[in-house]
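User: Could you go from structure to sequence for me? I need the amino acid at each position, not a summary. Structure tokens:
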């Protein structure tokens, strides 16, 4: 076995307040970064608000999601035991790793057998923050393994030898000219700033990686304890490629990323994409329960400080579903970006879990917070991030090597800072002293505020280094409250007074819309995500598909069994293949159901249905019956095929990416076109129609 790093070698960054402040100054002085961060925050925040408008009960769902995550974390070992048992029954090879070094050792053994370099292997990797957490790429490359990031944003930062700056949008800090120069220098193409050209270049380069990779490595969004399956969501199609095409797939999952069952999963998915990418549902939502034929599927479950965090005052941070909404909402992240934090996990949630996972060196990150509460408001599972940030500042982050210790770790305050907080605590307990202090402070800031950028305040504060000292209000809240009169304050507190956590059943739609309403909604939603719907009677199906193929001058297709009349296709000069072939431009599949609220279709792996027909071609044609349209994903999760098939995927439009300046490009790694032939009727087979 070759040399394997220790945990310290894998991820160790010594941080000082001075270094952190220096990075903050550099970020603030970077005009390109500031424009990029502003554009990201504005679009993400506005888009998230719009996305949740289509979910009237999102507040109730949010509280339910919080309760689900709390239940899982409180009984984590029980759910892990159930999950692992089911996954092993399904044929998945499960490994548990206590830290980064053990996870890397396990992966090296899977990839290279004895692990002795050089291994001469190619790994296609989809986006995974857990792999970044353990510095996996560097460790694999050190023994001769070639690792290629296949998410467009991750691929860009890998070519630049950088770490992601955002957990959802890795290259958000870059402009199109940065990418144009990079691709010109590294890929040899003529310099261009045309985003579709840049995107297509990456697609062509990475397609060869997918088709020749020895191993695919992915992360995991959720593990499902009841079924032993894993859920992976993506937009580009690269996650489907790395889990489907290579002969070996390795999924790396943080041990906390569990839900109890498919009902819980549907709930989480209804919140995740809206919070992360402002979509109702990501383009691809994969459910994987077993390896495909002639494939090995491994699952590595990582601790790496999670047990320690679970037994600390920061336990609630493990509820996080990694949507990145708190980063987009945070006024501090918006100014300094992810690289300013110098941690794999930036922003409000990163400031908490970095200290919990990696130690007290990361406690100063929690000082980079206004405690304004925007992160809590944006969190889809209602994590009280301001409370957790305060706890980190107070030294409540657990120390590595001290399992279950509460209140251990270095605080984020200097000696002067501690003395100030002690004095503040004394004053705050006395209404008279507090009122007097407010008056004195108000007078002082009226004098100091204009000069705060030039005269630094004591070192225990950050004021004056990067922001103006705000003027105190002319009147205190107490004075304004007394003038307004307590009688004018309404006793109604709205959603903030809501204590009841609704049952899952109350979240679902109570009435079943009629078929015509479902059809209309499905067509509208699919069209919104750049899909095309052709609504036809059964007898016209074959000819309509033939007409579409002829209009594109296509005479060869990948066809799943029992979808179209192959005799009719042959008479029309269409050659049919049943085996996957990357050279084919069109794949035709049947569907299990459609989802009216998102415009999604569900397909499942089975005999003759290997899923590649919906993945490899540039055009995907799907045939769906109107009678198989369901209102929501919650209803689809009850279908036996969802849990019984080796893999199933919800597809919501053609593949897409927005990793370059958040400019939408249709057709990344998966099909660039999705045509759904919506067939009226309920006949037993479409072919017989």
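Assistant: Here is the amino acid at each position, in order:
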């Amino acid at each position: 076995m070759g040399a394997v790093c220790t945990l310290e070698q894998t991820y160790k960054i010594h941080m000082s307040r001075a270094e952190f402040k220096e990075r903050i100054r550099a970020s603030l002085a970077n005009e390109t970064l500031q424009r990029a961060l502003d554009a990201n925050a504005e679009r993400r925040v506005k888009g998230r608000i719009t996305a949740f408008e289509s979910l009237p009960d999102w507040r109730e769902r949010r509280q339910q999601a919080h309760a689900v995550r709390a239940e899982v974390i409180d009984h984590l070992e029980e759910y892990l035991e159930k999950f692992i048992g089911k996954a092993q029954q399904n044929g998945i090879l499960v490994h548990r790793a206590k830290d980064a070094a053990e996870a890397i050792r396990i992966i090296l053994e899977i990839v290279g057998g004895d692990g002795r370099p050089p291994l001469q292997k190619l790994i296609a990797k989809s986006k995974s923050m857990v792999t970044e957490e353990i510095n996996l790429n560097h460790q694999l490359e050190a023994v001769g393994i070639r690792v290629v990031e296949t998410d467009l944003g991750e691929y860009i930062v890998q070519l630049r030898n950088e770490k992601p700056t955002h957990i959802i949008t890795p290259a958000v800090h870059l402009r199109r000219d940065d990418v144009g120069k990079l691709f010109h220098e590294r890929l040899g193409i003529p310099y261009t700033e045309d985003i579709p050209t840049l995107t297509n270049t990456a697609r062509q380069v990475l397609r060869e990686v997918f088709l020749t990779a020895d191993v695919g490595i992915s992360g995991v969004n959720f593990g499902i304890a009841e079924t032993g399956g894993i859920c992976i969501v993506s937009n580009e199609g690269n996650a489907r490629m790395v889990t489907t095409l290579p002969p070996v797939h390795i999924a790396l999952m943080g041990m906390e990323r569990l839900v109890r069952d498919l009902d819980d999963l549907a709930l989480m998915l209804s919140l995740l994409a809206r919070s992360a990418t402002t979509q109702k549902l990501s383009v691809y939502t994969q459910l994987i329960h077993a390896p495909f034929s002639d494939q090995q599927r491994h699952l590595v479950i990582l601790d790496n400080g999670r047990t320690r965090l679970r037994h600390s005052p920061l336990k609630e941070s493990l509820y996080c579903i990694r949507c990145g909404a708190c980063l987009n909402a945070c006024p501090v992240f918006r100014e300094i970006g992810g690289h300013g934090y110098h941690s794999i996990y930036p922003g409000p949630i990163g400031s908490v879990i970095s200290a919990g996972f990696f130690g007290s060196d990361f406690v100063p990150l929690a000082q980079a917070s206004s405690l304004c509460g925007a992160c809590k408001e944006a969190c889809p599972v209602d994590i009280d991030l301001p409370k957790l940030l305060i706890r980190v500042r107070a030294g409540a982050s657990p120390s590595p090597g001290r399992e279950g210790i509460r209140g251990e770790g270095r605080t984020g305050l200097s000696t002067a800072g501690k003395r100030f907080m002690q004095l503040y605590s004394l004053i705050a307990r006395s209404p008279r002293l507090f009122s007097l202090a407010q008056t004195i402070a108000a007078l002082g800031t009226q004098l100091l505020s204009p000069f705060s950028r030039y005269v630094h305040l004591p070192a225990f504060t950050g004021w004056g280094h990067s922001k103006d000292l705000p003027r105190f209000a002319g009147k205190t809240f107490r004075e304004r409250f007394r003038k307004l009169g307590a009688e004018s304050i309404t006793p109604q507190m709205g959603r903030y007074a809501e204590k009841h956590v609704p049952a899952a059943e109350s979240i679902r739609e109570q009435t079943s819309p009629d078929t015509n309403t479902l059809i209309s909604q499905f067509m509208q939603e699919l069209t919104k995500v750049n899909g095309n719907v052709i609504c036809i009677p059964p007898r016209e199906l074959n000819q309509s598909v033939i007409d579409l193929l002829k209009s594109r001058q296509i005479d060869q297709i990948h066809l799943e069994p029992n979808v179209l009349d192959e005799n009719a296709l042959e008479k029309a000069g269409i050659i049919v293949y049943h085996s996957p072939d990357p050279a084919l431009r069109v794949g035709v599949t049947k569907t299990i159901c459609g989802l009216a609220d998102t415009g999604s279709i569900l397909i499942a792996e089975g005999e003759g249905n290997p899923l590649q027909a919906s993945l490899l071609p540039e055009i995907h044609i799907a045939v769906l019956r109107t009678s198989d349209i369901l209102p929501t994903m919650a209803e689809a999760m009850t279908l036996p095929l969802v849990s019984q098939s080796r893999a199933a995927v919800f597809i919501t439009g053609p593949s897409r990416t927005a990793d370059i300046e958040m400019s939408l490009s249709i057709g990344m790694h998966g099909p660039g076109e999705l045509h759904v032939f919506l067939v009226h009727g309920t006949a037993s087979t479409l072919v017989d129609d």
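One structural detail worth keeping in mind: The longest strand covers residues 248-254.
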